[in-house]
Amino acid sequence: MPVIIDDExxxxxxxxPGEGLCVKICEKGALEEVDGNVVINPEKxxxxxxxxxxxxxxxxxxx
Length: 63
Known about the structure:
Number of domains: 1
Order of helices and strands: EHHEEHE
Mean pLDDT: 93
Radius of gyration: 10 Å
Structural class: alpha+beta
Oligomer: single chain
């Protein structure tokens, strides 16, 4: 099951204390930066949960 990104908690990459850490650590490239926002490509997500575990804003979760 792909992850869900809470846009309000995320606050865009410019406001992220991890400076888009989720995008950087996603081994499958399922998370991308689009116009400063984090966007998920669910077809690439392999449910590793690295992004959930490392999001400083706790903005990423499972559906």
